[in-house]
Design a protein that fits this description.
CATH topology of chain B: Cytochrome C Oxidase, Chain A
Number of helices of chain B: 16
CATH architecture of chain B: Up-down Bundle
Number of helices of chain A: 3
Order of helices and strands of chain A: HHEEEEEEEEEEH
CATH class of the largest domain in chain A: Mainly Beta
CATH class of chain B: Mainly Alpha
Structural class of chain B: mainly alpha
Largest interface: A-B, 86 and 96 residues
Number of strands of chain B: 2
Shape of chain A: elongated
Number of domains of chain B: 1
Oligomer: heterodimer
Helix content of chain B: 55-70%
Radius of gyration of chain A: 25 Å
CATH superfamily of chain B: Cytochrome c oxidase-like, subunit I domain
Number of strands of chain A: 10
CATH architecture of the largest domain in chain A: Sandwich
Structural class of chain A: alpha+beta
CATH topology of the largest domain in chain A: Immunoglobulin-like
Helix content of chain A: 25-40%
């Protein structure tokens, strides 16, 4: 059953996004039961055979005011809730991230570049756990979308624009990188692999990859 | 022969034109439904052989979901709401002989027809029909094969048709109301179509211009939507500037129809008539400043994201007002569960779900996760099927006697309703859950991803329910088409309703009213205290 719900959240803000989800679920869930319950009750209570003569009522201004203001208040509350997380994700990019990565999407693969160590991979995104990572997302051809469900992170990769996103993973493991924006024929298998490692493992992988890249020479330009 | 052509083909009678839209849209509903079945086949049993089509390949799958969306939105729901119902009801409900511009009305249908032909012809273009989704995001759509150009041309023609139609509705409603039919005596259906026509008139030219720009990018190598000298995201701005109001173009008429049907069959005035009109106007107005909520993930300026979130959240307020007023209409009524009424109640109860799921998507921080997943697919289907289509069914069951002079079979109508209601929910509700799990839309084979493989049982449930939902439309098809010939003759006013169209014979004769009716009251005088009957027609002094 858990397999059909939100996937485990493993970024520093995933819990907060899920918090918004559960707040909205609670409020809308309550509204759902109230409204559907009222419809059901009215349909049973006021069916023709039970209630032969309808009551003549044209409306009620007091009620109109109540059911305008209360939902408005609830929605303003939700705006503030969502805004906090939105601002954390979008407006407060880490000034000194621990790692820079450049992701360039293309039909139908992810070019992943570590500018500080000149390492480039195809579809293999390695990151260290517990570090602030700043990713610059762009695309070579059409719009793709860089989606890591477990991070609750999605960013369209737009050709001609370089857009920064950030995250900090909270646990190690193997996950998938998804293309979420329809990008053409093989959109459905534009899959990347996300490996979250301990900082030591990550550093070892980076050094190893750097060595291999140097050995191969400089023809490795995507 | 000449009179046949004049009466059924090149007719200028608003009722016949409405029916032309309706029958054309039915055909597209069948095509669009079959395409949906193919989508569900592929998602349930990826890569297995389908009757007739064989194994669906990715290129075909992309055409299928693109054309499913295109057909259902432009050629079914908009065609029925703004083409069929608006045409059929507006002159009748306001006491007019016909539209203000009957020939422009005919032109509107025939442009629509040309647009249909071009869209269907695009299947035979080299490289097949358009395959970039009904949203046709640039730059994929700029680089797509020729079918995409035909798709664009078809929708440009359709846009012109819609603009002509909306001008006609506005002029008719403003100028041709019968004496005494003040604006605040118009039935909600007319109010809804009036506001919808304003939306069509203001939004459609923007889409049409955008389509033309995309066409130029494709055939004349301009670069409006290409990186470098252009901006791919610009397409999304202009597209959604139309397509968000388009959602309201598709739902507001259903709101109007449901309001009237709920009142008639509750034998009770529509609760909060004025508030309902203001809420409709508020929804329509706010609908123009929320378009970028479809674009939270594009990397737009975070402050702009906040602005659009605020506007979007506020749309829930007038929407809530409408829902509560519908509840108020049911409250204390004397409810007759006709087929029309059942569909109108389903409209309210399903639209509630579509509205509530919209709140999740409006919260920008959460939308980042849910955007482009099946949660969005569930949301639009709760609005457009649960909302618009149940509204359409309600309208058809309600006005069928006035359209054809015969009654539909109520028993079959109820069978159709309950089966549709059950399988509709079994089809679309689980889509919320697979969306919450993170499954993206427009995936040919979701099993490519490990984290999605566990969804298989739900995918099977959805597909089997979808097939059942399709088959459950057979009683409706039978009920609709057979009763054209064998249905019980309809009296003038089978529902004892107050609006003007029920004062004239069924089917409504050419030019509708032998004598222009005079309107003495609003349309909702049901169950007046001390009155003999529980209804009082608008033309009664």
């Amino acid at each position: 059953m858990l397999n059909w719900w939100l996937p485990e959240g493993i970024s520093t803000y995933s819990g907060k996004v899920d918090g918004i989800f559960y707040i909205i679920l609670a409020i809308t869930g309550l509204m759902f039961f109230l409204v559907e319950g009222a419809i059901l009750f009215f349909c049973l209570r006021y069916r023709h055979t039970q209630h032969a003569k309808a009551t003549f009522v044209e409306g009620n201004t007091k009620l109109e005011v109540i059911w305008t203001l209360i939902p408005a208040a609830i929605l303003i509350f939700l705006m503030f809730k969502s805004q906090g997380v939105w601002s954390e994700m979008k407006s407060h990019m880490p000034a000194n991230p621990d790692l820079h990565i450049e992701v360039t999407a293309q039909q139908f693969a992810w070019n992943i570049h570590y500018p500080d160590s000149e390492v480039t991979t195809l579809n293999q995104l390695h990151i260290p756990v517990g570090k602030k990572v700043l990713v610059q997302v762009t695309s070579k051809d059409v719009i793709h979308s860089f989606f890591i469900p477990q991070f609750r992170l999605k960013q369209d990769a737009v050709p001609g624009s370089k857009i920064n996103v950030w995250f900090e993973a909270t646990q190690v493991g193997h996950y998938e990188l998804v293309c979420a924006e329809f990008c053409g024929l093989a959109h459905y298998r534009m899959r990347g692999y996300l490996k979250i490692e301990t900082p030591e493992e990550f550093q070892a992988w980076l050094d190893q990859s750097k060595k291999e890249a140097e050995k191969k020479g400089d023809e490795d330009e995507w | 022969m000449k009179s046949f052509m004049h009466k059924y083909v090149f007719s200028t009678d608003h009722k016949m034109i409405g029916l032309q839209f309706l029958f054309t849209a039915f055909l597209f509903m069948l095509f669009g439904g079959l395409l949906a079945m193919a989508i569900r086949w592929q998602l349930a049993w990826p890569g297995t052989k389908l009757p007739v089509l064989g194994v669906i390949m990715p290129e075909t799958y992309n055409v299928i979901f693109t054309m499913h969306g295109t057909f259902m939105i432009f050629f079914v729901v908009i065609a029925i709401m703004v083409g069929a119902f608006a045409n059929f009801t507006v002159p009748l409900l306001i006491g007019a002989h016909d539209m203000a511009f009957p020939k422009i009305n005919m032109a509107s249908y025939w442009l629509f027809f040309i647009s249909c032909v071009i869209m269907l012809a695009s299947f035979f273009a080299p490289g097949g029909a358009a395959a970039t989704g009904w949203t046709a995001y640039a730059p994929v759509s700029v680089k797509a094969p020729m079918g995409q150009s035909l798709w664009l041309i078809s929708l440009i023609v359709l846009g012109v048709s819609s603009i002509l139609g909306s001008l006609n509705y506005l002029t008719t409603i403003v100028n041709l109301r019968a004496p005494g039919m003040h604006f605040f005596r118009m039935p909600m259906t007319v109010w809804a179509i009036f506001i919808t026509a304003i939306l069509v008139l203001l939004a459609t030219p923007v889409l049409t211009a955008a389509l033309a720009m995309l066409l130029l990018d494709r055939v004349l190598d301009t670069t409006f939507f290409l990186a470098g000298t252009g901006q791919p995201v610009l397409w999304q701005h202009v597209f959604w500037f139309y397509s968000h109001p388009a959602v309201y173009i598709m739902i507001l008429p259903a709101m109007g129809i449901a309001s009237d049907v709920l009142s008639v069959f509750s034998r009770k005035p529509l609760f909060g008539y004025h508030a309902m009109v203001y809420a409709l106007s508020a929804i329509a107005g706010l609908g123009f400043i929320v378009w970028a909520h479809h674009m939270f993930a594009t990397g737009l300026n975070p402050t702009l994201g906040t602005t659009f979130m605020v506007a979007t959240m506020f749309i829930a307020v007038p929407t809530g007002v409408k829902i509560f007023n519908w509840l108020g209409t049911l409250w204390g009524g004397s409810i007759h569960f006709s087929s029309a009424m059942l569909n109108a109640i389903a409209f309210v109860s399903m639209f509630v779900i579509g509205g509530l799921s919209g709140v999740f998507l409006a919260a920008a921080s959460l939308d980042i996760y849910l955007h482009d997943t099946y949660f969005v697919v569930a949301h639009i289907h709760y609005v457009l099927f649960g909302g618009s289509l149940f509204g359409i069914f309600a309208g058809i069951y309600y006005w069928y006697p006035k359209m054809f002079g015969r009654m539909m079979n109520e028993k079959l109508g109820k069978i159709h309703f309950w089966l549709t209601f059950v399988f509709y929910n079994l089809t679309f509700f689980p889509m919320h859950i697979i969306g919450i799990h993170g499954m993206p839309r427009r995936f040919y084979d979701y099993k490519q991803y490990e984290f999605l493989r566990g969804l298989e049982p739900l995918q099977l449930l959805i597909s089997i329910s979808a097939f059942a939902l399709f088959i459950c439309q057979l009683p409706f098809v039978y009920n609709f088409f057979v009763n054209l010939f064998v249905g019980k003759k309809a009296p003038n006013n089978p529902w004892q309703a107050n609006t003007l169209e029920w004062t004239i014979p069924s089917p409504a004769p050419h030019l509708n009213y032998a004598k222009v009716p005079i309107v003495y009251r609003w349309p909702y005088e049901y169950s007046l205290p001390h009155a003999k009957e529980d209804w009082l027609a608008q033309d009664q002094p």
